[in-house]
Design a protein that fits this description.
Radius of gyration: 18 Å
CATH architecture of the largest domain: 3-Layer(aba) Sandwich
Shape: globular
Number of strands: 7
CATH topology of the largest domain: Rossmann fold
Low-confidence stretches: 3-10
Strand content: 15-25%
Oligomer: single chain
Order of helices and strands: HHHEHHEHHEEHEEHE
Mean pLDDT: 90
Number of helices: 9
Helix content: 25-40%
Strand order of the largest sheet: 1-7-6-2-3
Length: 230
């Protein structure tokens, strides 16, 4: 009885609301209500993981295999709202829940034993210090819960990059030169790697990371993001 009272009191002082619609969450809901989860713009990239428009986008930039994204990115849509929560509203637990949700989909579609290790795209240490976490790492940790694959921080970001917003596809790739390095003691040789990030636009950042992993002996690298646009 006392536990229920404490819980009711905490819910009153610190209400738990859906991060999309603002409605009160039930006990079994974490960051998103069941209605909002049911209306997320989930993609079908996992059904044609090695032959889709995301694969076409990175063609010629890196020799990666499969390319997938959990959500379709649309400006002003729910996927953009979720990414805003991750980057600016201190919601690492949301990224982990999204990873778990997509991990379930991947498991249901035969990807359970596909990879040896999950590696997130790293933030620059100063940016991660300011934000307090790397949303790509949190997304990857959510994936590990379902895929039972170990996550390692196998890459380091060694310099800031200029904003990519106004750059062309090739300019973005040039802007990524020498940005990433293999992390000390990261063993990727002969391993199948799932490289994860929060969002994919041109794919320049992901391809720069993939090229470092492949240059250090990774057997193959596949890409997964929370969201991707057209």
């Amino acid at each position: 009885m006392r536990l229920f009272f404490v819980k009711d009191f905490l819910d009153l002082v610190f209400p738990r609301n859906c991060l999309l619609c603002g409605s009160s969450l039930f006990d079994h809901e974490n960051n998103l209500c069941s209605v909002c989860k049911g209306t997320l713009p989930v993609t079908s990239y996992h059904l044609r993981a090695a032959d889709n428009d995301l694969c076409d986008k990175v063609m010629g930039l890196s020799n990666v295999g499969m390319v997938m994204a959990y959500l379709k990115f649309t400006k002003g849509g729910n996927s953009q709202k979720l990414l805003h929560q991750l980057k600016y509203r201190n919601k690492p637990q949301l990224a982990r829940e999204l990873g778990s949700l997509y991990g379930k989909i991947l498991c249901e579609n035969g990807f359970s034993n596909q990879w040896d290790v999950i590696i997130p795209v790293p933030l620059h240490p100063l940016k991660q210090s300011r934000r307090g976490y790397n949303q790509s790492e949190e997304f990857g940790l959510g994936l590990t819960e379902e895929l039972s694959v170990k996550l390692i921080n196998g890459l380091t970001r060694v310099k800031f990059t200029e904003t990519q917003t106004q750059k062309s596809r090739l300019q973005r790739m040039d802007n990524m030169d020498d940005v990433f390095q293999i992390a000390p003691y990261a063993l990727v040789a002969n391993k199948s790697v799932l490289l994860v990030d929060d969002v994919m636009t041109t794919g320049a950042t992901l391809c720069a990371c993939a090229n470092v992993l492949l240059a250090n002996g990774a057997k193959n690298v596949d890409l997964v993001t929370i969201a991707a646009g057209g």
